[in-house]
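Notes from hallway chat w/ T.B., transcribed later so I don't forget. T.B. wanted the structure written out for a chain they're using in a teaching module, and asked if we could keep both sequence and structure tokens in one place. Agreed to drop them here.
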Amino acid sequence: MFFAIAGPAVIFAGISKGGFGSGAAFASASILALVIEPGLALGVMLPLLMLIDVATLGPYWGKWNGKAALLLILGAMPGVALGAALYKIAEPDVFRVLIGTISIGFVIWQMAKGRLLKTGSDAQLPGWAGALAGGVAGFTSFVSHAGGPPAAVYLLSKGLSKTEYQATTVLVFWIVNIAKAVPYAALGMFTMQTGAANLMLAPFALLGAWLGVRAHRAVPERVFFALTYVLLSITGVKLIWDGLT
């Protein structure tokens, strides 16, 4: 039962992170939480997400937007620290609803401006918004691996090409996931059970990453951004649903 659910979930995470900005990858931990304790699900997923990060760094190396990545990373570090400090008392559902609402609101705003299929932006978010988005991404990534939507809201405003957008998310979450590993270990979220599960699920993670990179290369730019907004919308609805139920 565990691997029947976990295998496809991890492949989905690899495809999302490897090809479409990682916004929906958090759903894999939610799916795993259907069959194992939620904290254990987070501990199982983090090493697999880190493996996907490493597998996708090569194809996107040097293609990221350095300024946007730096702002998100600098903002994410305090967010990760806050997540570690508040993990045992934080209520993830509150943040799921908040991030889900922001995600859907951003898509509606872009629809109203008629910019869903355009790679440019006539009103880019300022630098402080990137740092703020990074802080929220770091925190929500720590407590539920849901850092993708806040980062996506900022990056989608920057007018990046599809590969620049994708490469920036790969770099940002590679650093963020490394930063999460030590406090995860200190909180006892890695066990012999999670380690054994990681070894058996690693091929699924690598397969998903490979499929994601190939899909990214095959999908035209306009279709890529349309899919990105669709995933952001679905992610927003899923976050709100998880937070309210």
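Follow-up for T.B.: Residues 7 and 56 are 19 Å apart (CA to CA). Might be a good example for the class.
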